[in-house]
Design goal:
It contains 3 helices and 10 strands. The strands form 2 sheets. A 7-stranded mixed sheet has the order 2-4-6-7-8-9-10, with no helix packed on it. The protein has a 3-stranded parallel sheet with strand order 1-3-5.
């Protein structure tokens, strides 16, 4: 019998003490709240699903690669856009030991942080990150894509390889920088 779903905002904990790879594909958990993983041996993590706060406690020190693909984000699931930002950047914090990261977020405007106080509170320190691939949709007339890229660069002082693949909401062709 599966455990009952957590109440709204409640923590759900899952333990995988010997796992070196964890793949969560097409996750559509309806409950809000934090999903916490205990996986200290984790080397590879891949998540594809709706936005939620994913916590790796403690962050695995040997994490080599993390991939996050957020299919539905922010405003559709959260009334407060700041909740979506906190969930996204809180999740990225759990991958602070990763050497490689691939982030796919549909709408960049939902994760951009422009307020300096919020940057200090929300942006993680990704000191080991050497390779970052960023994929997403942006509005050509806006400055959001540049803000998100600046947010990621601020977090990643050891970054050696940056790949950015952006497309507009109105066209399918990618803009690579």
């Amino acid at each position: 019998i599966p455990p009952p779903p957590p109440e709204k905002g409640e923590l759900r904990s899952l333990s995988f003490p010997a796992a070196t790879a964890l793949v969560l594909d097409k996750c559509s958990l309806k409950e809000e709240g934090t999903v916490e993983f205990y996986a200290p041996m984790l080397r590879h993590f891949r998540y594809q699903g709706v936005v939620r706060h994913i916590s790796l406690k403690p962050p695995p020190p040997q994490l080599a690669r993390a991939e996050l693909t957020l299919l539905e984000h922010g405003y559709k699931r959260h009334r407060d856009p700041h909740t979506a930002r906190r969930s996204f950047w809180g999740t990225v914090q759990g991958f602070r030991h990763a050497k490689e990261m691939k982030l796919r977020v549909r709408h960049l405007e939902e994760i951009a942080i422009t307020n300096e106080t919020r940057k200090v509170k929300l942006l993680p320190e990704l000191h080991r990150l050497e390779h970052l691939e960023r994929v997403g949709v942006y509005t050509p007339a806006g400055k959001t894509a540049a803000v998100v890229i600046a947010n990621l660069l601020r977090c990643s002082p050891s970054l050696r390889d940056l790949q950015i693949k952006l497309s507009t909401a109105h066209e399918d062709t990618n803009k690579s920088i």
